Structures are given as structure tokens and as C-alpha cells.
């Protein structure tokens, strides 16, 4: 069957794209669509066209597998033919109209959308820009400031915002297709879109926009190219701007950044696939238990509450339970401020939270996540108690950062129901969930982890048991090497600057100060007894911790935060220089390139060891962990991708 079909009813042609899962515009879809366009032109019985899609969504854009290898017929040519059609076309939008899908809708003469629909030009997230007229058509429909935001940030807008901005003509009230037909009849045959002026571009300060965007993009090229294309749209004829947009698109489509970003797109979707393919029935997630309501426990509770679950949060005493509730409430307030929920959503979420000190309150939960202090003896005690009270079908998870999940499972009578669920702070925001599979973890526990990731809209990556799993193990390795660089002559601010100019969201020292230096300190102390005597060890971080410098929470860490912002502290420089002298290192200068090369080399070697030991399921998973959990620049594709690039 052809992916695009057409049937004519009372002079109206219904052109329907049907190419699961998301109606992407692959070459066969384009060929079939071009054919439908030609048939419309030839059939004088047709007075108008409703363009719609089968399945759950309108067109999700070009087929990402084909980017960089353009095949005829080209989308811009098909869109030009639709725009120049002798009859009006109306796009009937449901689900998402993204990228080439929205460009297709904009080439039509009218647009109607279901109220739940979303529309966007997300191309920059793939390292490209709209390549089928999006930068030229969008600012003729919506004000230029809206077009700049939509195209340079790549975030979709909802149907109501699209209506207000002028991107769609009406919202469907009951039946999308019959209302689309009605719109065809009402549509004024106005001036063709490309002959209209761009909207409200005079007020734009292009230099200022570029400056702000350059800072925000952290080395990504596509947003800046997209802005330049919008500037073309405002300053050139439509025809010239379309040609310039196409040039930029073709150049970016073969760039290293776009190749890297496409790799990440597919790697994120492949991550955790082994959890989805399991036959086992996952635990029910309508009521989930959380033990410990500190930084992580409260964040995990918020993530669950926002996803609609009931949460039973167990703390060690009444005062800690009250503190945990306040922490959850404050986090929900912050979520409301960011527009994630409204006031009634906030109240309803808080209503779904119950705090307790007694494990008996947990018996209705099929999943319990432990997030108490990082202390093996305490965690063993918690698991033994859980094992005693929870029904045998319940799944027991630990949020430990480093501890041995197998040893914890060993304290229970049912080790097959125990696994690690390693969330990242803040747990209600960070997308990554490392699923730690113990040697005895059973399929139901794993299937539950997969279901939980979907429920919370997180990306699950499976890891086996080792010190630090995938992410913390790699971070420990490069953090150690960074400390060696400090001993050899570098300073924290130089290493942070090198990482940030490579594109990391934050350098390793600012990150450590933010999350606190104490967890890793405790872990180093725990390992001290078994550390080989000849292993190189830098004492700088230990010295800072001993001096009470535990990071931002104590006002001082690798930096001084007395003014709120990280400030270089001579006391830290002095400690580093002393440690260099003690280790008999001659201090020397490091270039940014040298610093980054060393960090990447260590990340890649540790990543390879993790693969060789079977800790991670694939090199792509390691890239996903470093990008979604540790601030590795997405447009660089991840450390393992760089070894292949
Ligand atoms: N091409 C190819 N495959 C795609 C695809 C696409 N555009 N979009 C999704 N898939 C696959 C995906 O890999 C997965 O496969 C399955 O569909 C379901 O996706 C000319 C050049 C539409 C919001 O960037 O944002 O247009 O893993 O798991 O959560 O200017 O997919 O099952 O085998 O993500 O419901 C611009 C990308 C392209 C949109 C649905 N468009 N897609 O989310 O399902 S460039 C995009 C999405 C372009 C033009 C330019 C989301 C979604 P598998 P999923 P979902
Ligand atoms: P935290 O100190 O902020 O919170 C721990 C909470 O556990 C406290 O509220 C405490 O009252 C409670 N608690 C202690 N003993 C208890 C008991 N017997 N019963 C019930 N509650 C008890 O610690 P955190 O940063 O939230 O870390 C918790 C766990 O998550 C640790 O295992 C840590 O390694 C891991 N983790 C932390 C981070 C992070 O960035 N902080 C990230 C991932 C994982």
C-alpha cells in the first residue's frame, strides 16, 4: 500500500499520510505525497484538499535516518507545489507537527489543530535548521520574536499558543476532519504567504540576539545558523532567503555536530530497550514507597507525585518526616513557578503524599525505593526490615551511588526482587535513571524499572554492579586525573574553564562544590584499607574536606562562595601547591586542549573497561549516561562516540 492515499468526496480530496510510527517524511512518503499533489492538480473535480495523518500524530518531520543523504523528490519542491496549488489545502493537525511536518502544514493555505496538538521546529536539536522553508514561512505567520524562540530553542508550542501567535487558523472543537473541511470553505484566498512581509522584525536587535544565543548554545552551531537564516528571512526576498536556508541546511546536515546529535537521538531511544523487551509483568506503580526524605528521597517523591503516583515516604522520626514533607512542598512550589503544575496540581500532588515512620505503612506499595544515608550497615538494616514486612511480590530498590547492590540483595530472602535505581539530583528534573542489575535481579524487578522510567519520562540505562556503576565510575576516574593535573600544575578554575569551553554545562570543580564533597570523601575513606600502596593518590580533596570545605553547602569548597558566586580562593591554591611539593611534582602550565584531551582519554579508557567487563550494554549507553547525567556536551555525541567519529 502507498504511504499516502487520496480519496475524493463531494469535491474535497482527503490526502492521508500513513507511515507508522510517526509519519516521518521518508523518501517513499515524499514520492507518494508528490504523486498525490500532481493528481490534485490534474483533477478538475477537486476544489480543495484536507491533508491529515493516520495514527496518533501528524508528521514528526523528515526521516532522521535519511538526513545527510538527500534523496529525490526533495521536500522543498513538494511544498512549493502545494503552496502554488490551484486549490486550497488545509492541514488537519493532531499529536505533534514537527520539523518538516510543520513546514508541510505551513505550506498549506490553512491550518486547524486539535487543542492537545503541539507544533515546533526542533531541527537545532539535531544540529541542523529547518530545511524546507521553515525559517522563511514561520516569521510570516507569527511575530519574529516568536519565530526566533521557536527555531533557535527548538521547543514545541501548544495549540493555544500556536493559535494566539497566528500559526494555526482555528482549533478543532469536536471533529478535526469535518471542521477542516469547513475551514476549506471559509478560507479567504489571500495573498500567498511568501509574498507577505515578515511580522514585526523591525524591533529585533540582531546583534544582541546573537550575543545571547552564542552564550546559551555553549558551542553548538545550529542555533546560530538558524538565527542567521531568520535574519536572511527579514532582509532578503523570500526566494533568496529560501535558497540561503537550503545552503545552510545542506552544510549543517553533513557536519560533525549534526552526526553526533543524530547519534544521541537514536542512542537515547535505544537505551533501556532490554527492559522493554522483557515478558515479565511489572509491579503496579500507583503507590510507591520511598525510605528517606533527604535531597534524593524528596526529589524521587516529587517525580512520582508529578507522574500521578501516591507516595508513602518513611523517615526515621517525626521531625525528619516533617522536614521531608516541607522539602517536597518547596520543590512542588518551585515546579509550579516553572509552570510544570498549577496551584490545584500542587495541592493534589501533596495530597497524594503520606509520611510515616513505620514500615507497616508500606504494605500497599509494590515498589519501594530506599534513599537513606550512603552507609552500608544502615542500608542493610533497612533492606532486612523491608524484606520482613513487604509481600514477596514487591520490588525493593536502592538509590545508592556506589554501594554493592549484590551485598544488599544478599541480606534479603528474595534477592531476585532487589535492584538499584540510581536517580540523579534533582531527581524530579534529571532525565537519567541508571538501573543497576544485581547478579540475582529477576525479570519482574527489571520490567518494573522499565515501566518506572516510562512513568517518570526518564531515560533508563542498564548497568551491572561495580564501584560507581557507569556514570560515577567514569566520573571518579576523570576526577582523579583532574586532581593529578592539579598536582602537576593546573588550578581548579583552569580545568573548569577548559571543560566549559569544550561545552560541559559546568566544570568538575563547580559540580563537586554543588553536590557536596562529602559522599566521595566517605567513599575514599571506605576504600582506603584496600587501596594498593603503590597506587597514585592525590590528597587535595581530602585536605579540603578536613578543613570543613564541603562545597557550596558550607560556603567553601574548591571555590569560595561568600559572595554567592564561585570565587578563586588563595587558600585552595596554597593547599594545591603544598600537595604538589609533597608529591615532588614540578608545577607546569597546561593548555585547555591538553586538559580536555586528558579528561577525554581517561573517560574513554574507563568506558572501554566498563564495556569489556560487561557492566554496560553498549557504548551508546555510556554516551547517554555522560550526556544526560554528567553535562557532557550533547553536540559532541559523548565520549565513546568521539572515539569512533
Ligand atoms: N525520523 C525517524 N524516526 C523517528 C522520527 C523521525 N523524525 N521521529 C521518531 N522516530 C522514531 C523513533 O526513533 C522511535 O523509534 C519511534 O519513532 C517513536 O519515537 C526538513 C530536516 C515525534 C515527539 O526532530 O521528537 O524535519 O525507537 O520513542 O516519545 O526541516 O519521536 O521505536 O524504533 O520518540 O511518542 C525533525 C523527532 C526532523 C522529531 C514522538 N523532527 N521525534 O515521541 O516516541 S528533521 C524531529 C520526536 C526535519 C526538516 C528537517 C519524537 C515524537 P523506535 P519516540 P514518542
Ligand atoms: P541526605 O542526607 O540528603 O538524606 C538522607 C535521608 O535519609 C535523611 O533525610 C535521613 O533522615 C534519612 N534517613 C536516615 N536513616 C533513616 C532510616 N533508618 N529510615 C528512614 N530514613 C532515614 O542524603 P541524599 O543525598 O538524599 O542521599 C541518599 C542516597 O542517595 C545515598 O545513598 C546517596 O549515595 C544516594 N544518591 C545521592 C545523590 C546526590 O546527589 N545527593 C545522587 C544519587 C544518589
Describe this structure in words.
With 645 residues, the chain is α/β, with parallel strands linked by helices. The protein folds into three domains: 4-254, 2-enoyl-CoA Hydratase, Chain A, domain 1 (Alpha-Beta Complex), CATH 3.90.226.10; 281-464, NAD(P)-binding Rossmann-like Domain (Rossmann fold); 471-614, Orthogonal Bundle (N-(1-d-carboxylethyl)-l-norvaline Dehydrogenase, domain 2), CATH 1.10.1040.50. Helices cover 48% and strands 12% of the residues. The protein has 27 helices and 17 strands. The strands form three sheets. An eight-stranded mixed β-sheet has the order 12-11-10-13-14-15-16-17, with helices on both faces. The protein is globular and about 85 Å long. Bound molecules: (2S,3S)-3-hydroxy-2-methylbutanoyl-COA (T1G) and nicotinamide-adenine-dinucleotide. (2S,3S)-3-hydroxy-2-methylbutanoyl-COA is lined by residues 21-22, 24, 60-65, 67, 75, 96, 98-100, 103, 122-123, 126, 128, 130-132, 134, 269. It catalyses: a (3S)-3-hydroxyacyl-CoA + NAD(+) = a 3-oxoacyl-CoA + NADH + H(+).
